[in-house]
Specification:
Strand content: under 5%
Radius of gyration: 13 Å
Distance between the termini: 34 Å
Number of strands: 0
Largest sheet: none
Mean pLDDT: 83
Length: about 70
């Protein structure tokens, strides 16, 4: 599902897309975001800067957690 369609689906349901995206990633893909995102390509694909920042923060959290294990 592309960003445009995700945003449309959120609008139909009265949801805020960026917060919904972060919530879904945390719920359904914990620990799956590894980092090193290709920002330019994702921006061209419709991701917002805030979405990418959130993904990178999740990746940092995962790396920190894996170091402490």
């Amino acid at each position: 599902m592309g960003s445009r369609w995700f945003e449309e689906a959120c609008a139909q349901r009265g949801l805020e897309p960026e917060e919904t995206f972060k919530s879904l990633i945390r719920e359904y893909a914990p620990g799956q975001v590894m980092g090193m995102l290709h920002r330019e390509a994702r921006l061209e694909a419709g991701f917002s800067v805030n979405e990418l920042d959130a993904l990178e923060a999740l990746a940092r959290e995962r790396r920190a957690a894996s170091r402490s294990e």
